[in-house]
Structures are given as C-alpha cells and as structure tokens.
Amino acid sequence: MTTVPYFAQFESRDRILDLISGKLDPTQDPKWHLSGAVDPEEYAHWSSHICGMACLKMHLARWQNRIIPTIDLMRQCREYGGYVEGEDGTIKGLIYRPFITFIQEKYGLQAELREHTPIEEIYDLLDLGYVYIASVHPSIRKPDAKPPKQGGHLVYVFGKNSERQELIFHNPSGHTSATQEQVHVDLETFSRFYAQRGILIKTEKN
C-alpha cells in the first residue's frame, strides 16, 4: 500500500493528549504557526474543530502532492459555508454538503455524502478506488472504550486488511503514534464509534 502522509489537527502531534485534556492551552502549542493561523488565538479557536481539514490535508498530500495548512483549508471551506461562527464565537461544522461543494469546486474531487451507511458497505469500496472521511466518536483513540455516543469526530479511512477484516485509517486526534497513523481496527469495533455517515471520495486512480 502506498504510504498516506499523516497530519494531525493540532500541529504538535506529540502533545495532543495534553492539548485535548486542557493541560496545555493551544495558544502555547510551539508549532501553532505551521497551521496557517495569523496568531496563537486564531489557532486555539479553531484547532479542536478542524479534524475534517486535517483529513482533507492528508488526502490532498497523497493524491495531489500538495500540502496546505489546516487553517488555510478551514478559511476556504468557511467561504462555502462548511463552517459557521455564531455571534458568541461558537463554531458549527464541519457541515458536510457545503464541504463537498467546496472540495469539488476548489480541488476537483468527486465526493458524495453517505448517511445511514453501515461500515461494511464502505469496507467493500476501499479497494475499488475510494477513501472515506468517517464520522466517529473521538474516543476511538482508545478502541476498548465504550463511547457515550457515535460521531462527533472525523478520521481518514483509506485501506483495509482483508485477511483480518480490519479498516486502516489515520486519526487527526490520536494521542500516540500507534493511534495516529495506520490504525487498524476491526469492523465490529469501528461500528461502536461510527455514526453511519461520512464523505466518500473517489481517488485519482479510479
């Protein structure tokens, strides 16, 4: 399998557990400037909301050989309505349909929204030239955990192990190397976290 570049939604991938737990404020991420943010405050405002942009960054790096900072991608997506900010600073997004329009028009990607779709159906498409940005609960970083609900976070699913009936994905908020890159999870475990929705993307080899 061709290597898929990995990018986290936080720039300091080795500090993710501290960042998501609140031990380290995102304004103190020493690599914040790599995100494309204008200042640490903009980075802190957005970094916990851009798992989808990290997935897109990975896809573009693999299939179009270009690396675009996550905050830059967020700004582009926001112009299409993929993110909406409230007057109180709350963020709504990623909103799937505007996101699909954005990646189609800006990057020429062929994508479709999948809802009420069992992971087994996606699994069957993964060796036919598709990848999948899947909605899962963020606690998937600890596969033995019992998630309080399904969905709320996005991971980039790009492969499978047919012998073991496993999905292979990158998790933008994994807290260790093993939970970030080339994560292997069997279908039954993945389904516990999976909201049965996501964005199916054709690859350039299709």
Provide a descriptive summary of the structure in words.
It is built from eight helices and eight strands, in the order H-H-H-H-E-E-H-E-H-E-E-E-H-E-H-E. By secondary structure, it is of the alpha+beta class. It has one domain (13-202): Cathepsin B, Chain A. It has a six-stranded antiparallel β-sheet. Helix 3 packs across helix 4 (70-79). The longest helix is centred in the N-terminal third of the chain and has 13 residues, at 51-63. It is globular.
In short:
The protein has 206 residues and is α+β, with helices and mostly antiparallel strands. 31% of the residues lie in helices and 21% in strands.
| Total domain modules | 1
Secondary structure tally, helices: 8
Question: How confident is the prediction overall: mean pLDDT?
Answer: 95
Summarize the main sheet.
6 strands, antiparallel
- CATH superfamily placement: Cysteine proteinases
Which CATH class is shown?
Alpha Beta
Shape: globular
Q: Which strands sit side by side, in order, in the main sheet? A: 3-8-4-5-6-7
How many beta-strand runs? 8
Which ranges are low-confidence, i.e. pLDDT below 50, for 5 or more consecutive residues? none
- What name does CATH use for the topology? Cathepsin B, Chain A
Report, as a whole number of angstroms, the end-to-end distance: 16 Å
Helicity range: 25-40%
Q: How much of the residues is beta strand, in percent?
A: 15-25%
CATH architecture: Alpha-Beta Complex
Structural class of the helix and strand makeup? alpha+beta
Listing every helix as H and every strand as E from the N terminus to the C terminus, the arrangement reads: HHHHEEHEHEEEHEHE
